[in-house]
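cron nightly-structures :: item 1 of 1
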Amino acid sequence: MASKPTYEALEQRVKELEKEAVERKLAAESLLKSEKHYRETVDAMKDWILVVDPDLKIILFNEAFMQANKELGLTQDVIGRTPLEIFPFLPDSILDEYRWVFENKAVLITHETTKVAGTEFITESRKIPLLEDGRIVGVVSVIRDITEQKRLEAQLQHAQKMEALGTLAGGIAHDFNNLLMGIQGNASLMLVDMDPAHTDYERLKNIEKQSQRGARLTSQLLGYARKGKYEVTPVDLNQLVEETSYTFGRTKKEISIQQELSEDLFPAEADPAQMEQVLLNLLVNAADSMPDGGNLILKTMNVTHKDMKSKLYEPKPGKYILLTVTDTGMGMDNEAIERIFEPFYTTKEMGLGTGLGLASAYGILKAHGGYIDVDSKKGRGTTFSIYLPASEKEVQRFVRTRERVVKGTGTVLIVDDEEAVLEVGKGFLEAMGYQVFTASNGKEAIKIYKNNQDNIDIVVLDMTMPAMSGGEAYDRMKKIDPNVKAVLSSGYSIDGKAAEILDRGCDGFIQKPFTMQELSRKVGEILGEE
């Protein structure tokens, strides 16, 4: 028969039980604390997190997931429901994705584009198997909103594509302008002393006319490449809209043009000639979309960068002028909208459009620090929205002047590495009454100028030449004579390099292909002969 436990043994056993109770309590408290930390960590994450069991029922979720439910107006209970029951707008395949993870015990990454209440958002979902002793007991789904990330990626890709196309377009335009300079210039020189009754007179006039037409096309290419000729001043956009639409409307009687112009419109910081070209391109595009006539509505208003949301660009903070051009024409599909500002892309039939008008408008506005958007639906018309930076300066009214040849006296040094351009320029200047030196490169120009600086009144200097650029040649001439007068010439027009040279004291700029009238006016202005 077993002996009864002693008092000491009972006391020891009680102490052991008390110790075990304390340990269990501490373990329970530690577990609760661990679970609390786990919950706080999960709730602190911005990604949506939920866990489903083998029946695809939600058994756990975090605060971000619940907050998303509330924002989407979904307030029903979550525990015990499937993800598809919570988000009925998701595709049915979502449940198959969970089943795949249970079957394969592998991570599955998917992307979904979903539209809720008119708003489209893109998510990245990582479905991760939850394992316990090698057995899958659930799937953890981590869902991240990547809408903004994708928008920024699209913005970068769009900018890179347009920049590459702009570089190509600018190079093509530069080379063509040099060619056109030779063609147009030689025709113009032959016409100077030709009797209008001569059998070749009209043919030469037609060559000159077609060359100028080609120059307008390259001008649009340069506009797209943001290498156009810009003389920015504070402009009254209302005046420009009224004058341009009036002139355009006289040729398009079948179109009704309406204007809704803000009376207190900010001045726009822009080149009026370039902005007139932008507006004309948009008006022509609108008219082409309404072959049987229709309505054209032009609106202006003041806005700020805060009104320019959800765009493929981030506008600089500040005040802007908004000009909208709306037509009731055929409209465009999504493919056309995505490509509408690319050079040479056109929805018109062969021979009816160059695909340069809207590309030029895009480039000109970018160069002005502005933006252009398009909103269109097939069969329901199109609206182009133009945003231009506002100016704090007083508006300067612009007037158009007719070009005329300004006769002059004195000596000019003309420098160009293109032989045809050099010969034409020499011919123009001699026809105006000037004595002319010619140089085919920068080094030759410096040598001629050094030997004849007292006789040379002005230099017409090509910007882009091999071995020594026009900018470097100008700087060396300026060391020889600090008062040297010079006009830069380029097929690229005013860009960053030209602006830098002008800032260093160069007197003016002329874009190839230039006419005799344009060259005479520019030289005459600098020499004070106008």
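cron nightly-structures :: done
The chain has a mean pLDDT of 78.
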